[in-house]
Automatic annotation (TrEMBL):
This is Phytase A. The keyword rRNA-binding does not apply. Pfam families: His_Phos_2. The lineage of its organism: Eukaryota, Fungi, Dikarya, Ascomycota, Pezizomycotina. Monomer. The active site is at residues 114, 387. InterPro entries: Acid_Pase_AS, His_Pase_clade-2, His_PPase_superfam, Histidine_acid_Pase_euk. Keywords: Disulfide bond, Glycoprotein, Hydrolase, Membrane, Secreted, Transmembrane, Transmembrane helix. CDD domains: HP_HAP_like (cd07061). It comes from Friedmanniomyces endolithicus.
Amino acid sequence: MSLTQLFASKEHKYVPVGSHNGLPGNRLRSKSVLLFITTIALVVFAALAFTLVRPAPYGNAQSSCDTIQHGYQCQNDISHYWGQYSPYFSVSSDISDEVPSGCSITFAQILSRHGARDPTASKTAQYNATINKLQANVKNFTGPYAFLADYEYNLGADQLTVFGQQELVNSGIKYYDRYRELASRLVPFVRSSGQARVVESAQNWTQGFHAAKIADQRSERTDAAYPYPIVVIPETDVCNAFENGPDGNIASDAQAQWAAIFISPIRTRINAALPGADLTVLETVHMMDLCPFNTVASPNGTISGFCAMLTEEEWHQYGYYQTLNKYYGFSHGNPLGPTQGVGFSNELIARLTSKSVDDESSTNHTLDGSNDTFPLGRRLYADFSHDNDMTGIFSALGLYNGTTGHLPNTTITEAPQANSYSAAWTVPFAARAYFEKMQCRGQPEELVRVIVNDRVLPLTQCNGDRLGRCTLDAFVDSLGFVRRRGDWDQCFVGNNYASHFG
């Protein structure tokens, strides 16, 4: 689609909405001129991204490692322990994720992380410096380190990899196939937080959904609404105390304590094998990070040579290191972590109940009150964001409340012992949560079910049944923290609180 076509099309609505690094916050705080400039910039960006990005089309052969239905399935003993840097994989579930007999899905919301990406700009500079130091100071690379002699650092910064693009195409296909009865005749309402890789992921997802719809012989095999409208939400900070307050070092402190325990022997071993390397603790972590980042930089997800430098046990320890970052940064380990997910969670309640958003935290009343930018009564919704935002949302919703005793930072707690909580199980690259409503024979009220990366959550907070379902009323009633806007009043302690609610 050309820029001219995009501007002329009434189907494309790119709406600037202030937020904390993604979807959970929607408060506008900019002047009208700035909003206009931001809107135009987002339109131009989105048009260019849609025009230039062409991931593999539906029907192409999938990589041997990554599949549409089950995600990444190569060397699972290590690749499922890379924390938030793991490629999406299907998490085992004690409860079947099939639609129960006698039931039909009436509503399906996906909340997705963007696909696999290159390191952030600051990290890619640090990784490159670590490699340059190694190659300048080490004379002989042998054994599992032999590949480093000729390794060239060529990772980019911040953007999706080809592998990451395909992850979201696959996700769109899978969503269509899963909710075919609705998807074959309906169009999803799509929103994305404003960072380039997230908008691109949303577009990749719609490509997969559209291609699956066209290929479905049971559908009308037409899709005149494509390309689908995408509401784009710029990313800004709205909870001052969370961003700049005294608890900002909780996550890094927890990681540092665990790193002091598990990294020391790894660092000693690598430095002994590579005389002259003299890696620091942080540089040793860089070497670990380069395993997942180089793997997802391969179009087919080929396991990187960096991955052979650690044992299976050590990769479990590394995965826990990343889990501590998410838990103490954006979940129950941080006093204001769950509050960051309150805004989106109240929007979810509104969508589930088809009632106006009732929220006085981060949501924007003007936008959430418009049927164009926040329609109610739709059956299919798709939102795209970041791992940190999703972690806050899951915590606000109480989905992993069994971890509220706080994860230890001196011993490892694997996901099965942490109420199924880990960064890899919850927010890997291309993570997706499905929030479903279903109508079942003999049941007067609709039931709600939550599925995170194919694992059906038991929903103990609302006395979920053996199939992980609560009645809609029970699910909403269990969200008292969300409906009370969490601890939002703590976000602006010492500031003019009223000024944030224009």
